[in-house]
Amino acid sequence: MSGLTSSEFVRHAAAALERVRNTRPRVHCLMNTVVQKLVADGLSAIDAIPSMTSSPEEVEAFVEKADALSVNLGTLDSQRRTSITLGVSASARLGRPWVLDPAHCDYSASRATFAQQLLREGTPILRANEAEFWLLQVSDDVVGVRTGKHDVVRKGAQSITIENGHPLTAKVTGTGCLSGAVIAAFLALGEDPHLSAASALLAFGVASELAADHARGPGSFEPALLDALHAISPDDILKRARISHDQG
Amino acid sequence: MSGLTSSEFVRHAAAALERVRNTRPRVHCLMNTVVQKLVADGLSAIDAIPSMTSSPEEVEAFVEKADALSVNLGTLDSQRRTSITLGVSASARLGRPWVLDPAHCDYSASRATFAQQLLREGTPILRANEAEFWLLQVSDDVVGVRTGKHDVVRKGAQSITIENGHPLTAKVTGTGCLSGAVIAAFLALGEDPHLSAASALLAFGVASELAADHARGPGSFEPALLDALHAISPDDILKRARISHDQG
Amino acid sequence: MSGLTSSEFVRHAAAALERVRNTRPRVHCLMNTVVQKLVADGLSAIDAIPSMTSSPEEVEAFVEKADALSVNLGTLDSQRRTSITLGVSASARLGRPWVLDPAHCDYSASRATFAQQLLREGTPILRANEAEFWLLQVSDDVVGVRTGKHDVVRKGAQSITIENGHPLTAKVTGTGCLSGAVIAAFLALGEDPHLSAASALLAFGVASELAADHARGPGSFEPALLDALHAISPDDILKRARISHDQG
């Protein structure tokens, strides 16, 4: 964890949330069509500024104006493939941080090949599940976010485990995609990527817990999550963080 | 109604809901872009597993992994047309059940022709309104679901009428598409298609009534419907079912 | 304001809302993929009838069946560009009113050029922000809606300023697009376009205020806004309108 104690990390995360709210980073999202609205609303809720076009003619202009890029391989067709390639190249050329979510690349061979090709283009934060990590054979310099019951953020031998979160999150389509975009917003601060990714997930996990207090099920959980992302304060993070770490 | 009495059918429907929750069927959806998120969330709410890609290169791999297919002809362009053709062929080849919603095929001649072509490809459950049924001249071996004030599920001379439901459902875009996808989830159980379609609509109608208790209008009805689909129990169906049937 | 006093305008707006509910205008929407669901639900909430296809093969058939057209240039790709061109031409040929939202045309040169080309095709209501108006150099016969803290509806030297509204509106992606579609629904009444656009925005602004009473943040504001658009009465407009006007 870059030499920080757990409580130093939690204080870092709380302060990073404040910096996101103050700097209002622009995050361009190349998201599947299913989740675009939720991701845009979630970014707005933390005071980031989303843009969502995946038109090949426009993507470079929007990535240039953005501070970070969030890429998701869901609902992948040839046009989206072109746009993602253009967007990731532009992002690499401009030195912008980016997040890659290979979204079920284990279901479709063409999607897995494409994910591997993108990983050669630049070094993203990779947000994936166990099966996807295994398939993609990620190298040690990539910060990997393995989501599941707990979120684990790993770089080489170092890992941070976030125990905050709520099971209803998994019942709402797109919350994983949104957490990737929130990571991109924190990366835009230009701080250590490992800490930024873990800070973003800690904020997201705490917001999920706050949301659950106002939810009757997965339907009401979604607006409650957006309300909580809008309301969450550094203090909520300091009070509720449950993390552990392993220095490798 | 395949020889069942009304109360035997209601018990069948209640048990079918339980089996859906336990078996977690995978439903691939070829849906218009407007409603993808609602349909995915609604399937997750009943513990089915949705997938939504309509990319021509990926659709067959996803249909192969799915237990049933739900097709909606809204926002139909040439790429979606290709994907639907590929998806329906794969589904027919694999013997998977599927639902077809011709979505306003009476507005657009090219859409009606396409619907007729799909009906020759295999025998779906057809979810349509009066005008669409008339236009498509469906043969007697197709299970037809006519939605409206009451839902009528017909096969040949036999019909089941579901009186449960709530008028706010019609004010929320995509609830009809979602009911089609819920039918697909019940079809995945591999039971009599006529009973499965009627069971799905009964569960959906009862959930709509439960949702209305927590709604102030169409906006709050949508999350309440998802909450209700998540919460609805076999017991709710047994207590609230209002159906009638006609043996032809 | 076409010679009306402020209170005459407010009474006009209240009556126009009633006429929209009674006539149920059909509004075809060529919207970016992010906001389609919200826009469809918002139109249904005021009892208008939305359609959303942007397939080039279908758009003309749908525009023909519609009473007004609402066009938004977000997520613009070549197919959407074709559809919008076809839709706007059909609309001009049929003499249907239409609304144009150039959506960040200041971000992308190709989008700005396309917006200018559409403005030569016919005379829409133009819904834009300050930067977009400046860029597009709109002629005096276009009714311009400048959204921001207050909404200003201008034609030539005459302007109406709507002070109703709520800051949470800006935190929900697609509320601006929806307000454009609501303008289209009011335009479908066939009355003075300047008054219709201002009436629509007044109704929308008052609904936003009603919604805020039931919102905990931007997430719960969205369903509350749809509930309010469904519930808002002419009386709410008469009681809550805060407008000013300038006769030039």
From TrEMBL, chains A, B, C:
Its EC number is 2.7.1.50. Its cofactor is Mg(2+). It holds the Pfam family HK. It catalyses: 5-(2-hydroxyethyl)-4-methylthiazole + ATP = 4-methyl-5-(2-phosphooxyethyl)-thiazole + ADP + H(+). Keywords: ATP-binding, Kinase, Magnesium, Metal-binding, Nucleotide-binding, Thiamine biosynthesis, Transferase. Pathway: Cofactor biosynthesis; thiamine diphosphate biosynthesis; 4-methyl-5-(2-phosphoethyl)-thiazole from 5-(2-hydroxyethyl)-4-methylthiazole: step 1/1. This is hydroxyethylthiazole kinase. The keyword Zinc does not apply. GO terms for molecular function: kinase activity. InterPro entries: Hyethyz_kinase, Ribokinase-like.
